[in-house]
Structure prediction request, 310 residues.
Amino acid sequence: MATVLISGGTGMVGKFVTQLLLQQGYHVIVLTRKIPAVTTPGIKYALWNVATQTIDATAVQQADYIIHLAGEGVADKRWTEKRKKEIIESRTQSSALLIKTLQQTPHHVKAFISAAAQGWYGADPQPPTTFGGFTEAMPAATDFLGNTCKQWEDSVAAVTTLGIRLVKLRIGIVLSNTGGALAAFTKPLGTGVAAILSSGQQIISWITIDDVSRMFLYAIENTAMNGAYNAAAPHPVSNKVLTQTLAQQLRGRFYMPIHVPAWVLKLVVGEMSIEVLKSVTMSVKKIQDAGFKFAYPTIEAALNKLVPRA
Ligand SMILES: NC(=O)c1ccc[n+]([C@@H]2O[C@H](COP(=O)([O-])OP(=O)(O)OC[C@H]3O[C@@H](n4cnc5c(N)ncnc54)[C@H](OP(=O)(O)O)[C@@H]3O)[C@@H](O)[C@H]2O)c1
Prediction:
């Protein structure tokens, strides 16, 4: 069976993708900065150091496919200038190291599947009633995330000059019961508060961890896939609908909806608040036309799967 080398395989998405790969019979090598104290049976680990541009090249030599997920968490800390640099360079320099290794080492890598993000697009230019969603050919936004996503995608582009098929998945907000955005949305509900952000009208392009992980596998196996694909569920919802659906699922009728004003968010998370307040609607026609079938197309189906019912 084929071998998949996965950078960032220890992260939220990476762990799920890795399990799926193992279930499908793939050999998996996780490329990491530090071998975990508790390793997963069936997985090999290989070390790299992006800062010093060193890597265990034998891992690249063994790979049939590379999945590239590594990068500093975008929402983990406040966006200081130092943090912004780390967010960008952990992606661009890790891509550079992988590409340099592919150039210098004999290998048989057939496809390189890279994470990318909806941040490419910026905010919806029209209200949800008239906007059909961003399509993959649209240019990158000029804000911080737009810039980051542009540099990130540019950093993997050279893969195609090596004759390797390149797929970039522009991922929306991943909903998982192991962390990430859903944990943040769920936290206030512990005290019965459904925290709607600002007006709550802003659209969230979400996707379940299950569907996004299956999409990485689909991109490996479907050799017709090439270039960028939006990776979000076909039915995005407003922040208010997501919050209320989550509240009903977790607490039945026993919750109190509260609007958190934009200025409070700004105070708490700084510049990053722009990201949770803006509408982002992505068209997923391209991935659907490629034949991908969503297991969780609606927010009700997604939360039913991920969250225990009250
Ligand atoms: N989760 C989402 O909602 C979402 C949405 C859009 C796009 N994405 C993108 O999808 C990818 C995976 O997301 P995720 O949520 O699974 O992220 P995550 O849980 O933060 O995992 C990212 C992994 O990247 C590695 N990493 C972090 N900083 C690094 C650095 N400076 N140098 C090298 N490796 C580093 C870490 O692996 P080691 O510690 O093992 O080295 C970490 O496990 C990310 O690139 C993310 O931006 C995620």
